[in-house]
Structure formats: structure tokens, C-alpha cells
Amino acid sequence: MTDTLDITRSALLGGLPHGFLGRAGGVSTGEVAGLQMGFGAEDAPEHVADNRRRAVAAILPGAALVMPYQVHSPDAVVVDVPWSHEDRPRADAVVTDRPGLLLGVVTADCAPVLLADHEAGVVAAAHAGWRGAQGGVIEATLEAMEQQGAQAGRIVAAIGPCIAQASYEVDAPFRAHFTPDDECHFAAGREGHWQFDLEGYVAARLRTCGVAAVDPLALDTYTLEDRYYSFRRATHRCEANYGRQASLIGLA
User: Fold this and answer.
1) Domain count, the chain
2) Which one of 89, 105, 109, 146 has the lowest number of neighbouring Cβ atoms within 10 Å?
């Protein structure tokens, strides 16, 4: 990996400090080589800490990085002051209106969503796997933003690197979790299987909530192996571990 970070930004989020980070430019080695940002990846803690420092310096230098303990929940928390790593709450979205905080989530196929109400000065980062998205993490994030003065009709959202429909084969028990209204997010696959559009599903939930605009970046974590970590790709290759990339947003 080189020293240059791979950062994708969304035009909808404009000049706000933000970025969807890839795996380039970090110090982790082995199967998780690169900018591995998760403490749950059996990576050396000092490597993760160094990678996180590099990410903060690239997005919002001097900011306090705030990331939750992700559990595939529908829960969103409002952040007023940074917390310690040991005290981080179990949640899958973080919201703030305080400058100097850099909010983040880690993913490895799930959809990272960065949101902002530019006028109100409120931002959020959400981790939306299928379970969290179906359970209401998008709705909870928007509700928490509105509690801080945002309005859904002004909120814009970008969906970062996640597993694409062509790479996401699911079976009948998986599909049974969804209603007939969600049929449009499933494409026919081999017998007894379908291809699930996670990005489209998350985008649809955002639009149903009335957000002003959605920017799906269409970056497939599974196939773009030089750029992103992927849980499913690692599983298919019988690799012992997999890394996590981060998505960050803050207020200067």
C-alpha cells in the first residue's frame, strides 16, 4: 500500500469535511494490509490507531474521532463530546451539531451512509447492513438529526462503498425477511437464489423518509479488491480475517 489515502467524496456533501476511505495508505499488514480501521479485525491495535490518525489528518485535522460499537442495530446516538474507546455506546449511527467532532462508521460490505443538513449544521454517519436498514437505522438517524434542528427536506445523503447487487447472492430464508413491497430490490439468480440490491434498498428507505437528495456512489466492495475490504469476498476465499474501511464526516 502507498502513503496516499483513497478518499471518495460526494458532491451532495459539498465542502463539509467527509470521505469514504478505501484500504490504500495504511500500515496494517497481511490479509488486512492497508488502512484497516476496525478494532474487531484481529489487527495490531497500534496499527489501527495509526490508521485512524492518518484518516483524521486527511479529513479534518485536529478533530476528535467518534465511532460507535457497531452491532447491526437500528440505534442512533447524538454526540456532544467525544467518548473513550472503552465507553463507546452500542449503536450503528452517530449524529452531531458540534464542530471539531469527526463521526465515523466502519464497514466491509454493509452500506455506509453520510448525511448532512447544511443549513442546520447537523451531520451523521450510519452503518446500514440489511438487518439494520430493515430494522430502522435510517429512520432513527434522521429522527436524531431532526432533534438537533435538521429537517428531512433539507437533508442530503451519500451511500458509500458496499456490496453490489451483482455480488450479493441470497437465498429464500434471506428473502423471507422482506415484504412484497421490497420485491424490486431482488433480481432473479440461480434456482432458489436472488441478487439483493443493498444500496438500492438503503436509497429507497432514505427517499421514503423525504430526504432532499441521495447520492449512491455505486462502488462494489466485493469486486474492487484492491480498493476495499469485503467480508463476503474473504469468506468465499476462506481467509482467516477481513478488514474494515471507514466513512467519516464532521463539522469544521
Assistant:
1) 1
2) 89
